[in-house]
Amino acid sequence: MKEVRKMDKKVELYHGSGQIVEFPEVRKTRYTKDFSWGFYCTKSYEQAYRWAERKHKHGIINVYSYTENKQLKIKKFDQMCDEWLDFIAECRVGKIHEYDIVEGPMADDTIWNFVNDYLSGNISKAVFWEYAKFKHPSHQISFHSMRALECLTYERSENVDDDTVE
Questions:
Q1: Total-model pTM
Q2: Distance between CA 10 and CA 32 in Å, rounded?
Q3: DSSP, res 107
């Protein structure tokens, strides 16, 4: 199991993909994600591995060093909370936020189903939290502007079978 490595105030981040992504981009897609459109990474090598393996025939883990720029608008959620739930609910229905970078727990498919039930009025916020308390969300950090992407430095890419490709 790989740990987060700090390198001179830099943190290593991972992006699971089907290709080498030396130059990350913010792309609008058909569906918005937890924190809206952006370039998504994680501190967890294992999570990036799952993203790459699950969604792509030939998965690649792209590795970046990240240096936070305190001049950017950054929103951090340390854990799932009411503010986090409201934020991802708004993002998932298309609301755009003003942050350059958003970091926090990821609503996986199971948690997202609970969020969807909450948004549809099928369950209350209290019931959402009752369901979600048994789930252990994973980490994500999303980059939403060109200035935010400048905080990332491409280091290398690896096949999901751990053979280095670049």
A1: 0.82
A2: 28
A3: -
Q: What are phi and psi of 44, to 5 degrees?
A: -95, 115
Given a cut of 70, whether residue 41 has pLDDT beyond it is yes
Task: Quickly tell me which residue has 């670049």 as its tokens.
Answer: 166
CA torsion 105-111-112-114 (nearest 10°) is: -130
DSSP secondary-structure letter at 3?
A: P
Tokens linked to 46: 């294992």
Q: Residue written as tokens 């740990």?
A: 3
Question: In this structure, is the dihedral angle defined by the CA atoms of residues 112, 31, 160 and 47, taken in order, positive or negative?
Answer: negative
Q: How far apart are CA 32 and CA 45, in angstroms?
A: 23
What would the pLDDT profile of 146-162 be if each residue is shown by its tens digit? 999 999 999 999 998 75
- The CA–CA distances, whole Å, from 50 to 9, 42, 73, 161 equal 27, 11, 29, 11
